[in-house]
Amino acid sequence: WALAAGPRVSSRELWTILLGRSALRELNQIEAELNKHWQRLLEGLSYYKPPSPNSAEKVKANKDVASPLKELGLRISKFLGLDEEQSVQLLQCYLQEDYRGTRDSLKVCSYVGSFLPPSPFFHVGFR
């Protein structure tokens, strides 16, 4: 897809660049690509909201989400400082699209995650 600003890059491609896992290896190439799409990155990060009691109650009341998924989503919300509903959505997307482990390894991750303190740095600069 060609737009006036150039070819459209998916969000996944942008995150791949940020993580240093793209084909781009030269810093000037990475910088140019991120500068070209900075507005898109900012909008993507600005989409996420801080936690709220209302959102947590909606997650707890949602009958379409399994209890273990709710519990892990709520832990993720606390750890990242994200809205509870958005945290569950992120978890569901991750499990559907990217998770490559087993159910047992997911249980271990959930157990270990219960001991992690909340993340103080996720929303720095984005509130």
TrEMBL record:
GO terms for cellular component: nuclear pore inner ring. It comes from the Eukaryota. One of its GO terms (molecular function) is structural constituent of nuclear pore. Transmembrane segments: none annotated. GO terms for biological process: protein import into nucleus; RNA export from nucleus. InterPro entries: Nup188. This is Nucleoporin 188. It comes from Ursus maritimus (Polar bear).
